Amino acid sequence: MIQNAGGASGLQPTQKGTCYPAAHPATLATYGARIKFKSLTLAYKVVSGSAPTYLNALIQTYTTSRPLHSSDERRLALPPWVRAGWRAEQIASSVDRLARYANWKGSRVGVHSRAVEEDDREDEESENEEDVEIRRELEEKRKVHLKWCPEVSQAVEACTDKTLLCSHLIIAVGTNATGFVSAFILNSASWNRVGWLSLWNERNRGSSLMNSPPAPGEPSCMIYQQKEGGSVLICQCTCYVAEDQLFQWTEKVFACLQKRGLTVTVLSDAPIAEYKTSDYHHGSDIPFLRALKTSAYKEVVNCPFLEQPNIVTGLPAAVLCHCQIHGIPAVLYQSYSDVISADSVTMETYKLALTWTKSIKLEPPTTDILQKFTRGCDDVHGNLYT
Amino acid sequence: MFVPIDETRPSFKSYTLILPAISVGNVGQLAADLIISTLQLQKIGYFHTDGLIPMVGNNPYATSAENANDLSTNAEVYCSKDLKLTVLQIRAPILQTKIKQFRKSIVSWIKSSGFSKTVLLSSSHAYQRDDQQLEGTPLRYLLSPALQQEAGPRIKELEWREMEKVCAFPGISDSEQRLFIPGGGITKGLYTDCCNEDIPMAVVLMFCSEGDNIPDAFALGNYLNDWLHLLSKSAQGSPQWNIPPSWKLLFGGGIPPAIF
């Protein structure tokens, strides 16, 4: 059982070590070709003088003070930010631009291996002070921060080991799982928003102000607490957490929860195409739930376990890994659905997962509310034809 | 960081450690799977690190319904007391930005555990071989100076071929030779670290291409077994490896009947 074994793995490792949901290789190649074509056209236009003037500062032609072989090769000069002697003070202000540059660099298409990156590692050995500085700045920017509202942070501070008492933590990841939590649980008005995780990555620019909570509807990781009793926490994660942030994410969340008496339930979803089975699933069987549990979890699991060779990655995997290693009882309910956007039938499957607790009342939502969460999830990203 | 399952920390003094490099075709990982599943090694702990992409699944080496639902993670440590053997199985790719830290944590674990030797199972792109590498066996080895004395004579007896060094600047100068393991992931880095730190390490690798790499895993397993004698050979002259149940559906699930 190896994450990237087999051609049918659901992940495509890219140059920067990030994995995105599998896109068709042909699509990737088309994007790569389009990016190259576009930049070459722009470069040509700048050189020939037909480009908009604001581009002239970015691209300069290569000129030599004396005749060289390279003089008549119509080369371009190195852009200013690549030249040596670039000052370190400039870095902080331009991390954003750098990240974009790195992403662009990462999008070049080459021979693809499912196991390893093709980059020559020796580059890394010879990295200079400047590279180290850039790397450090990027790492700093990609840190995950957990923020509590004033009342909760006071309660945490008051506790001797700086942790929060919590009997159940429910983590919802994915459109259906978060939709289910919104429609069936949080809708009942007996929940308070008590905190959020702020993070920045290439797909989640985050709110510009670190200390202000994300606006409603914005992709985020919100934490809710039950008004009465307050020992149940729900973390609803609608934003993208990059692979290098998953470990941090779990460390940050679990560092401020009391380990004793804690049970974790993770709700998550995946497309049916990721589910491997020797028999083919027909329409009526879908959607369905599969579970994974840590060895400390002794409760009854209300659905079949995830069969080998299926695996789970992403945030649910990070949470389960953490709980397994630290002996925390945790269970993951993964729903496999054949609908791209959130739908009410898939949401209903999670009802099974939450039968263990009397403290959470599932309220069947009205049609209006359901529609609110099932609509608006189907906006098409990166359509080639629009 | 190694995290044992039991409270007591197991002692690895004079044990052999086998670990895979995440390399082309996942050959090292598949070979490690074969070793764990055939020798029925016992899971004794985890390697908990932020350098690997998180991943979970059920027991990949399940033999019965009882042990089928033991959670397994991206890096686990298996052990056999009788064979004095430890296997670290890694199941997920290493994060590009954390490669150095990952290598460092592996090296410091090897050092603190006192393994008598470490074997890195790896692979390299077959298409990148040079003229001298094209002929003969696709299997190669490397020994760190600290292991040369102990393992050198036996390796010589087996007539293994050492991984050739290639010209740093082919066609320009032949004087500068370097170690080049394309597609080998952390192989070269980890080997160099172990040489510098005086750690006894052997790299056992194979040239291969990506595709169905199960035959490559068998070949690498047999090659390693010639040296370490992990399991006895059958009458046909090759060891009987036991394929773990998690290897099924390696190339995807069932075919939709509607397409016919």
UniProtKB/TrEMBL annotation, chain A:
Record's protein name: Proteasome assembly chaperone 1
Q: Molecular function terms in GO for this entry?
A: proteasome binding
Write the record's keywords in alphabetical order, separated by commas: Chaperone
Q: What is the lineage of its organism?
A: Eukaryota, Metazoa, Chordata, Craniata, Vertebrata
- Start-end of Acidic residues biased regions: 117-132
So what family is this one in? Belongs to the PSMG1 family.
Query: What GO CC annotations are associated with the protein?
Result: endoplasmic reticulum
Q: What's the domain of life for this entry?
A: Eukaryota
Membrane spanning segments where?
Answer: none
Which residues does the annotated region (Disordered) include?
112-132
TrEMBL record, chain B:
Q: Where in the cell is it found?
A: Nucleus
Can you name a GO cellular component term? nucleus
- For this UniProt entry, what is the primary localization, expressed as one broad class? nucleus
InterPro entries from the xrefs?
Proteasome_assmbl_chaperone_2 (IPR019151), Proteasome_assmbl_chp_2_euk (IPR016562), PSMG2_sf (IPR038389)
Q: Which GO terms describe its biological process?
A: proteasome assembly
Question: Which domain of life does this protein belong to?
Answer: Eukaryota
| UniProtKB keywords | Chaperone, Nucleus
Which Pfam families does its entry note? PAC2 (PF09754)
> What is this protein's function?
Chaperone protein which promotes assembly of the 20S proteasome as part of a heterodimer with PSMG1.
Indicate the family of this protein: Belongs to the PSMG2 family.
Subunit architecture: Forms a heterodimer with PSMG1.
- Which protein is depicted? Proteasome assembly chaperone 2
Tell me the lineage of the source organism: Eukaryota, Metazoa, Chordata, Craniata, Vertebrata
